[in-house]
Design brief:
This protein is mainly α and 135 residues long. The chain has one domain (10-126). It has five helices and no strands.
Length: 135
Amino acid sequence: MRHGPDDPPCTLERFRSYLHLLARLQLQGRPPARLDPSDVVQQTLLEAHRQRGQFRGQTDVERAAWLRQILAHNLADAARRLHRDKRDVRRERSLEKELEQSSAQLARISQMTRSFRHGVCAFSSENPAFPTTSC
């Protein structure tokens, strides 16, 4: 689907669940009261809306990549604010790279789900005693 920089805010809103999932994956293991994924996602969508004129892509894939970059920046900023005096260089990692890995993991899970569904449908069609409604 093609989009331009003047698209309505609802175009960005479609990515909220995706960004929230990525943020939750990145914040796993941290005390929930200290940093809420919803807050980081809201900040990301707000910044994306403000910077929509800077978006140079035209497809949903390009927009998702652009939003991931903003999310990575916001997660890094939030982590810096929380741990300003507790920095340990040995624990630093690229949040943008981890978000890309999380996105790739979601794609693999989606592919596995499709393969599983296809296998269930094939089994069901060959074995009428096991009907399924998902095919």
